[in-house]
Write a structure and sequence with these properties.
The complex is a heterodimer of chains A (about 300) and B (about 270). By secondary structure, chain A is mainly alpha-helical. Chain A has one domain. In chain A, about 75% of the residues lie in helices and about 5% in strands. Chain B has two domains: about 190 residues, Macroglobulin (MG2) domain (Immunoglobulin-like, Sandwich); about 35 residues. Chain B is about 35% helix and about 35% strand. Chain B is built from seven helices and 13 strands. In chain B, the strands form three sheets. A six-stranded mixed sheet of chain B has the order 2-13-12-4-7-9. Chain B has a four-stranded antiparallel sheet with strand order 1-3-11-10, with no helix packed on it. The chains are: A mainly alpha (about 300), B alpha+beta (about 270). Chains A and B meet through strand 1, strand 2, helix 3, helix 5 and helix 9 of A and strand 5, strand 6, helix 5, helix 6 and helix 7 of B. Strand 5 of chain A pairs antiparallel with strand 5 of chain B.
Chain lengths: ~300, ~270
């Protein structure tokens, strides 16, 4: 059943849009990733102009993440206090990252840096997560932290402005999550993705948050980021298609609910191994796409 | 006075009498579009389109549907060591947003290269007309890659056997093109041109306009997004939030009901 998208100016099958949204929403609810890395290319393949696909995708992520946040909130998986610090650090880092991109552009090496950063970061994060989770699964339980980690822990403990984050069961100087998220913000601006891929592993491995709380808290900060971006895209570029976003959201919000519920029945290690597999799959696909000769040497510019 | 009026009446009568002859004077190739306007409503899925007319016996007809010229920005890929990365950007203009070329037999058999160039038929003409900025880019590569990209998207198509020629009669030979208008083609005024071809040259041609317009709710929505952008943006966020929280509320309620029926403790409260 086709439906005409007023801002995109194209007609697309209703069930294809809802189905694509459901798959991406499921991953979002399960793993705390925004899903933009998957949905934008899918929409472009369905015939939506790239700029409208990216902007409407962001709008639909507002719906998906709000649904996911609500589900995770009820399950006690959202650390709003830590999420607010992360959001602040992430936005500051993203602002700096945009400036870095500008400088790289003038030097003519922006795209090369982005591509290589993408592959290196995805490969490192995905590889480490996969190996670590696999070892954990084999052992049957999480292993106690090693001694050198305890040393770094004591160093972090001496930093000022220590703050309790009871929901996550951790204590850190407020600078730790802020600086870490600031760095991730720079990376996400450089790489041009929402950052769930990097943010969730960062929360788990560096901030020592439980996996489920990391997922819920990541969705919490994605919700605010995407709401801001949607407003900016609608006012400056007129590229948000509300009908498209709503149809995707119908699928993705339902998928997010199922994902969040399924996540509850899986162990943290199992969730991590799923996320690591997807990260590695994206990395392999990217590597293949940049080493094989493309059919056309021009592609639409999305104004990164 | 009466005489002047009588003369005027005679002149008008003569003019009206000659009007049909003027209308029937040799003109372009007959072309009829059905429908002449395609309306994009809520459940628009493209539309069946018929282009038809009659040509002189012994002729063939080529039909070209062209979208308005567009200007787009593209990334150009270049090789850095073993990997392909975007090495720069180009602005491409002077090219149609849609180019559908229907012909009964291969174009090379119907028209000479000069005729193809003169009447802007075929991809070669698009390649030549394309304006590329900045000019220092490798133009031939960009031109070829652009056409490849558009053909992959099915917005540039050469459809052989796309024109059905009827049996020649004394009145002429009918031609007909029937296809489903692509649903991905955006709203715009498209130009439909029919060329009557004989001995490698175009002997007659005609042009008609095909309007593809948004109507009803989609038209209002597109207007709202452009004219009241801030309000539209706020509404988009609000609707997304309501959808997200609404679905969550419904799912949670459904789960509670189901669990209550089973008589088990609620998982969220356990």
């Amino acid at each position: 059943m086709p439906v005409f998208l007023p801002v995109a100016g194209v007609s697309i099958n209703l069930f294809l849009l809802i189905g694509a949204g459901a798959v991406v929403g499921f991953l979002s609810g399960l793993l705390g990733v925004g899903g933009g890395f998957l949905l934008t290319p899918i929409l472009m393949m369905l015939g939506v102009p790239p700029t409208v696909a990216a902007a409407s995708d962001t709008n639909s992520i507002v719906a998906t993440s709000s649904s996911g946040v609500a589900a995770h909130f009820r399950l006690g998986n959202v650390d709003a206090k830590l999420g607010s610090v992360l959001l602040l650090g992430g936005l500051t880092g993203a602002a700096i990252g945009v400036q870095i991109i500008k400088v790289l552009r003038t030097m003519g090496s922006a795209d090369f840096v982005i591509t290589v950063t993408y592959i290196v970061v995805l490969g490192a994060v995905g590889g480490y997560m996969f190996v670590e989770s696999l070892q954990s699964l084999r052992r049957g339980s999480m292993v106690p932290r090693t001694s050198h980690r305890d040393e770094s822990r004591s160093l972090l403990d001496r930093l000022p402005f220590q703050m309790q984050f009871p929901r996550s069961g951790i204590q850190h100087s407020v600078f730790v999550p802020f600086v870490l998220c600031f760095l991730v913000g720079i990376l996400t601006a450089v790489m041009g993705v929402g950052g769930g891929f990097i943010m969730v592993p960062m929360m788990v491995y560096l901030l020592r948050m439980p996996m489920r709380v990391a997922v819920g808290t990541d969705l919490f900060q994605i919700l605010f980021t995407c709401a801001g971006v949607t407003l900016m895209q609608a006012t400056t570029n007129h590229t948000v298609d509300l009908v498209l976003a709503l149809l995707i959201a119908m699928g993705s919000t339902t998928g997010a609910q199922i994902g969040a519920r399924l996540g509850r029945h899986l162990r943290g290690d199992q969730l991590k191994i799923v996320l690591a597999s997807i990260v590695l799959a994206v990395m392999v696909k990217m590597t293949l796409s940049i080493i094989s000769t493309p059919a056309s040497l021009v592609s639409y510019s999305r104004g990164h | 006075m009466k005489r002047i009026m009588a003369d005027t009446t005679v002149l008008i009568t003569i003019a009206v009498g000659f009007l049909p002859l003027w209308a029937a004077a040799p003109a372009g190739l007959p072309l009829k579009l059905t429908p002449a306007t395609i309306e994009m409503g809520v459940f628009y899925d493209g539309a069946p389109l018929r282009i038809e007319g009659t040509a002189e016996p012994g002729s063939n007809v080529v039909v070209v549907v062209r979208g308005p010229d567009v200007e787009e920005v593209f990334n150009v890929k270049g090789r850095v060591g073993p990997i392909w990365v975007n090495s720069g950007k180009v602005h491409i203009s002077g090219v149609p947003s849609l180019f559908l070329c229907f012909h009964p037999t291969p174009l090379a058999e119907l028209l000479s290269p000069e005729a193809l160039a003169q009447h802007q038929i075929g991809y070669e003409v698009i390649r030549k007309q394309m304006l590329i900025q900045p000019p220092e880019q490798d133009r031939d590569v960009v031109r070829a890659s652009f056409v490849t990209l558009k053909t992959q998207e099915n917005v540039y198509r050469n459809i052989r056997n796309g024109v059905l020629m009827g049996k020649p009669t004394e009145a002429g030979v009918s031609y007909r093109v029937e296809f489903h208008w692509p649903r991905k083609a955006p709203p715009a005024a498209y130009e439909v041109r029919a060329y009557e071809c004989r001995n490698g040259a175009v002997v007659r041609q005609t042009t008609a306009s095909l309007k593809v317009v948004e109507t009803g709710f989609p038209a209002w929505m597109a207007w709202f997004a452009r004219q009241h952008a801030s309000l539209y943006g706020g509404l988009a966020v609000l609707v997304a939030l309501l959808t997200g929280f609404g679905i969550d509320f419904l799912v949670a309620r459904f789960r509670r009901k189901r669990t209550a029926v089973k008589g088990k403790p609620l998982p969220d409260e356990a």
